[in-house]
Design a protein that fits this description.
By secondary structure, this protein is an alpha/beta fold. The chain has 19 helices and 5 strands. Strands 2-3-4-1-5 form a 5-stranded parallel β-sheet, with helices on both faces.
């Protein structure tokens, strides 16, 4: 008994030295999540994967309240579908330059080597392997560009954009003196007029038509399938209708004094953003997942889709509802976090001595946490952070601390 008490004290001392295993309660699309999903979320994840693998083009809404773990789901999806390009974009952070930002996220995730491979395959397809002069390989770049334009023109709306992309692709592959500048252009860097002229280009990728067209080229010619995960999609509705759903509010300032009968700039921006997102459906093979906070938002989005184009309802999937944790999930989540934490600091005695224990907490405390949080993952983590901070930072006896949470 004394030996086990010593092991418990050793674990507490280690926590006081290293800090709490629970240090943050908000998952983001930038910081990778390493903790896997609990069992009920695994079943939910497989239902999403089933949709992804069955269809090529769709918009799949995932509905979950604040703190339900929608962003954490993105990381679980990325880990499970490692053979897909899965890209995260939050509408909270991206309002303007949507195509440029989305393309930048794709190219950063996929890597420049993928783009080099695409450029090589396309140029070979357009005739770059044909020899112009005798035995030594020297392609006729203008002929390759003409073949490319004739092939692409019927499938792209913006002729200037596709001509620039063709010129950049062929310069990258067939003109060794322009390869570096062309690669910088593909990476979305700001290119000055002199460099653009040297590459025979009109614009860099900050142009809306250029970034969208390049995104289409990248996705449709990548060997790996692509999924775009758009978080906080209800931001569009909030911008179109500033008053919260179900909340009536007296208009203190009448915008028509400034804008007349025209819509406000914020609403106009939201309409344009929605058009851009819906336009992504024209990119062959691009699967889109959107997250929403409530069913009410889904109904409004559905009405917006129908107003824009009734055919869009064919690509809009029935929403999948992300529920709160069940009580068993909390125990699994808690143990997984502790195992990950102690494994990272190489304290492997934890797995031998506490594999069947919830120490330093207990089942009664975990039940209290579940009831208090109502199963909301973010609220659960908030309470765990609070308890472990008391354990780590306080000199108070552990039993006295736990009594407050029973």
């Amino acid at each position: 008994m004394l030996l086990f008490e010593n092991k418990q004290q050793k674990l507490l001392n280690l926590l006081k030295f290293t800090g709490s295993p629970f240090k943050k309660f908000v998952s983001t699309g930038e910081i990778e999540e390493d903790i896997g999903l609990v069992q009920s979320r695994q079943d939910f994840l497989y239902s999403i994967i089933d949709v992804i693998e069955k269809d090529e083009n769709f918009i799949l809404p995932i509905i979950g309240g604040v703190g339900n773990g929608k962003t954490h789901l993105f990381w679980a999806l990325k880990h499970e579908l490692y053979y897909y390009n899965i890209i995260y974009v939050s509408l909270e952070n991206v309002i303007k330059k949507f195509y440029y930002y989305t393309y930048s996220e794709f190219i950063e995730s996929m890597g420049i080597e993928v783009l080099r491979n695409i450029a090589r395959r396309l140029c070979n397809k357009w005739g770059a392997l044909e020899r112009k002069y005798g035995f030594f390989h020297l392609a006729d770049i203008e002929k390759v560009r003409k073949v490319a334009f004739d092939s692409w023109a019927p499938n792209f709306e913006h002729k200037t954009a596709i001509m620039d992309i063709i010129n950049a692709l062929t310069a990258h592959q067939l003109d060794p003196y322009k390869k570096i500048e062309a690669e910088r252009w593909f990476l979305g860097e700001v290119i000055d007029i002199r460099e653009l002229s040297r590459l025979n280009l009109n614009h860099d990728l900050r142009g809306r038509n250029h970034s969208y067209t390049m995104l289409k080229v990248l996705v449709e010619n990548s060997i790996v399938n692509s999924v775009l995960f758009i978080d906080d999609f209800e931001k569009i509705i909030s911008m179109m209708k500033p008053i919260s759903i179900g909340e009536e509010k007296e208009e203190v300032f009448d915008r028509s004094w400034l804008y007349g009968s025209r819509e406000s700039p914020e609403k106009h921006t939201a309409e344009k953003l929605l058009d851009k997102i819906l336009n992504l459906n024209k990119i062959k093979g691009l699967r889109i997942i959107i997250t929403l906070k409530s069913v009410d938002y889904y109904k409004e989005i559905k009405d917006k889709f129908e107003d824009k184009n009734s055919h869009l309802l064919n690509v809009l999937k029935e929403p999948i509802i992300l529920s709160n944790f069940i009580e068993k999930d909390l125990s699994t989540f808690y143990k997984k976090n502790l195992e990950f934490f102690f494994g990272n600091i190489n304290y492997f005695d934890y797995f031998r001595d506490f594999s069947d224990s919830y120490y330093p907490l207990n089942e009664i405390v975990l039940k209290y946490i579940y009831n208090r949080s109502k199963g909301n993952p973010r609220e659960i983590i908030k309470i765990l952070i609070k308890i472990f901070n008391e354990i780590v930072l306080s000199n108070e006896d552990l039993n006295e601390i736990l009594k407050r949470y029973q």
